[in-house]
Amino acid sequence: MGNQEFSEIATRIIADKRGLRRDQVYVVWLVKVLQNNKALLATTESDGMYYEITYDGDKEQFYVDDYKKEKNEAIDVSW
Questions:
Q1: 51: buried, middle or exposed (CB in 10 Å: 19+, 13-18, 0-12)?
Q2: Any long-range contacts for 14-22 (C-beta under 8 Å, 24+ apart)?
Q3: Higher-scoring residue by pLDDT: 79, 19
Q4: CA distance linking residue 17 with residue 31, whole number of Å
Q5: What residue spans define the domains of the chain?
Q6: What number is the average pLDDT over the span 11-36?
Q7: What is the reported pTM?
Q8: CA triplet 65, 33, 62: central angle to 5 degrees?
Q9: Rounded mean pLDDT of 33-54?
Q10: Residue 37: in which H helix or E strand, if any?
Q11: Is the CATH number 1.10.155 carried by domain 3-68?
């Protein structure tokens, strides 16, 4: 499956799952390796959620993982 088709399907999956319009869901990151696709998606909602969608090209199945951002901290590594 090509990136454009996968991106459209992934966006539709999250929009339907959350009861949102498709223009309220956006792809943050996308990759295709061999016959598999993976994307990280977020929504315009301010709930801290993001979603990982994987397409297994061998099994022709989609998998969705839901994540919630707990915190964001800066780490100084200039010892």
A1: buried
A2: 14/41, 14/43, 14/51, 14/53, 14/64, 17/51, 17/64, 18/43, 18/45, 20/44, 20/45
A3: 19
A4: 22
A5: 3-68
A6: 97
A7: 0.88
A8: 35
A9: 96
A10: strand 36-43
A11: no
